[in-house]
Every structure is written in structure tokens, then in C-alpha cells.
Amino acid sequence: MLFRSLIRTLSSPRSYLVKYNCLGTSFSNYRQIVPLSTTKPALKDEKVKVSFVLHDGKRIEAEGKIGDSLLDVVVNNDLNIEGFGACEGTLTCSTCHVILKKDDYERLPGEVTDEERDMLDLAYGLTDYSRLGCQIELSKDLDGLEVKVPETINDARS
Ligand code: FES
């Protein structure tokens, strides 16, 4: 019974897609089963919440997509953080300096590159848990991430 039902479903015209060649000629005897899927095609549309805490205690909350950098979050949400990301993520300014909580810092994936470390050395108010926002890539694990934005920025280009 189940087998007959399956055969009936598969032989239904709606279950098939007639395939055409590049000249638009139909191959009526060449059919392909249309894949049905209920899974999401990618996780990239999932949102990750991030909070930026300014030096005066003001808290700015925003969302980014998985794979976005913190700089992307600031730019895409048009956040009012003065001077943040002046070099647009080309690792030449250090204006995207943020300070993380120890636990958050330690759960960031990957190592700090030499280029980021060099730029961090020029940042104002460097701490052991400082990173450059343009180098922090959001993942689902970072949902709820909170970073402090230092009082002053130092644009290493000037
Ligand atoms: S935006 Fe310039 S170093 Fe990150």
C-alpha cells in the first residue's frame, strides 16, 4: 500500500521537472525529480545580538548576521559610534578597538594575527582583552556578545 502510494506520488507530473537543453528543446522523456527540502539553505541569515557599551555607560544594541564583523554591525545598523572603523576594515587605523569580557575574549575563534596585534599596539587604552572590531567575525556562539568602546580612539593613519 505504501509502495503504491509512493509510486503514484513519484509519477505525478508535479513531482517532476521537465528539463530543457540550452537551445530550449524539450526532452519529454528526460525528467528529474524536484528535490524537496525543509531545511534552511544557509545559516547566514541568522541574527546575532551584539551590545556596544560606550565610555559614558550608554548601551547600543544591534544585530548582525553570522559572518559579519563588528564593523559590519556598526556600519549596517548605522550606529552612532564616533570615528569607529575609519579605515573600513583594512587594518590600518585601530579606531575599531573594542574591549571584551575575559570569557568572551577567550571564546573568540582563531588567533590574533600579527597585523591585528601591530595595530592594537597603537590603540588607545589597550587591555589584555582588546581586539579590533573589524577582525571579530560573528558566529552563533557569540550571540549576546558585549563589547566596550574606549573613550578615545587613535587613528593610526594620522
Ligand atoms: S577598521 Fe581600521 S583597523 Fe579596524
TrEMBL record:
CDD domains: fer2 (cd00207). Pfam families: Fer2. Gene3D superfamilies: 3.10.20.30. GO terms for biological process: positive regulation of ecdysteroid biosynthetic process; steroid biosynthetic process. InterPro entries: 2Fe-2S_ferredoxin-like_sf (IPR036010), 2Fe-2S_ferredoxin-type (IPR001041), Adrenodoxin-like (IPR001055), Adrenodoxin_Fe-S_BS (IPR018298), Beta-grasp_dom_sf (IPR012675). Keywords: 2Fe-2S, Electron transport, Iron, Iron-sulfur, Lipid metabolism, Metal-binding, Mitochondrion, Steroid metabolism, Steroidogenesis, Transport. It is found in: Mitochondrion. Residues 48-153 form the 2Fe-2S ferredoxin-type domain. Its cofactor is [2Fe-2S] cluster. GO terms for cellular component: mitochondrion. Its main location: mitochondrion. One of its GO terms (molecular function) is 2 iron, 2 sulfur cluster binding. The keyword Iron applies. Required for ecdysteroidogenesis in the prothoracic gland which is necessary for larval to pupal transition. Belongs to the adrenodoxin/putidaredoxin family. This is 2Fe-2S ferredoxin-type domain-containing protein. It comes from Loxostege sticticalis.
